[in-house]
Write a structure and sequence with these properties.
Helix 3 runs antiparallel to helix 7 (about 155-175), helix 3 (about 65-95) packs across helix 8 (about 180-205) and helix 6 (about 125-140) packs antiparallel against helix 12. The chain has one domain (about 5-300). It is an all-alpha fold and about 300 residues long. The protein has helices spanning about 5-30, 35-55, 65-95, 95-105, 105-120, 125-140, 155-175, 180-205, 210-240, 245, 255-265, 270-300. It contains 12 helices and no strands. About 40% of the residues are buried.
């Protein structure tokens, strides 16, 4: 089998897993509170990531870490998993999965906006167009299609879902200039983040009422959402002749996710959700497809 074919297999496997996590979040939150779910899934992810770097022979890179590396991972671990998933899980607790998932998907637009002040990148017309298209989709989803009502279905949930995109974007921006191996950095981030969540878990009296279904859900999220998908996606990118060939598969995830949400969670998918999601994906697509072409023309000039 050719490497590119293998890349597509790994990429599709990753997208399929990503498509299930919104349902896993919602189902797990029926049995666990936000802090319980985050702590248990984070513990599992730390174990999974440790096994990954052990099997990849990268454990030696964790020895002799500088004070800067430790400090950076403590900061990044605060952002993700601690702050990011606390906010995201709470959004899922308040909103239907079909609303929380597309709203969280706008992180790519948030990333481009935050890159202007933090990375000194220019905001182009294509970025503004992408923002306008995507956030019009957010408005459609948040109002459930009642555009003239100017009333969000759950303002707190919408604010948290959009707020999670800011935390996620900040996490990736501060990762851009990191020289440590990505798998090792991710392990350290989750290790420190899990310690922070653990403090809240035990000090806040959350170490009780942990039903089996909740434990299974947290285990699934820890293994797949926070752990193994990193390996699968990295493998797909390494095998592919071009990152763009597998990155395009990401656009399948939010739509296949709605299928799982309907059949696993039992939500009736609203037409406004589909319409809004299409606008969000189109906005992100406009940004990702046009900007590389503009850069190529500038390079030729």
């Amino acid at each position: 089998m050719r490497d590119q074919s293998k890349a597509y297999i790994f990429g599709l496997a990753t997208v399929l897993i990503w498509s299930t996590v919104a349902s896993a979040f919602k189902l797990s939150l029926r049995h666990l509170d936000v802090v319980q779910l985050l702590f248990l899934s984070s513990v599992v992810s730390v174990a999974v990531l440790f096994v990954v770097i052990l099997l990849q022979g990268r454990l030696d890179q964790l020895r002799g870490l500088s004070t800067r590396d430790v400090g950076l991972s403590l900061f990044l671990g605060f952002l993700n998993p601690f702050a990011y998933y606390l906010v995201l899980f709470k959004a899922y607790d308040l909103l239907p999965a079909q609303e929380a998932q597309p709203l969280n998907y706008t992180w790519a637009i948030t990333l481009s906006l935050l890159s202007v002040p933090l990375l000194k990148q220019r905001l182009r017309l294509v970025d503004l167009a992408a923002l306008l298209i995507s956030y019009s989709g957010v408005y459609v989803i948040s109002t459930r299609g009642e555009l003239g009502a100017m009333s969000f279905s759950n303002p707190e949930g919408v604010a948290l879902a959009l707020g999670s995109t800011i935390i996620w974007a900040l996490y990736w921006i501060y990762n851009t200039r990191d020289r440590l191996d990505p798998a090792c950095r991710l392990f350290l981030n989750f290790l420190f983040g899990t310690v922070l969540v653990g403090i809240v878990f035990f000090a806040g009296g959350h170490a009780h009422s942990l039903p089996l279904k909740g434990l299974l859900g947290a285990g699934y999220i820890g293994v797949f959402e926070m752990g193994i998908t990193f390996v699968l996606w990295s493998t797909a990118l390494k095998l592919s002749t071009s990152a763009a060939k597998v990155s395009i598969l990401i656009y399948l995830s939010p739509f296949t996710s709605l299928v799982f949400i309907h059949y696993l969670v039992g939500e009736v998918i609203l037409p406004s959700t589909i319409a809004g999601l299409i606008l969000i994906v189109v906005g992100i697509g406009v940004q990702h497809l046009i900007k590389p072409r503009e850069a190529a023309r500038e390079a030729e000039a």
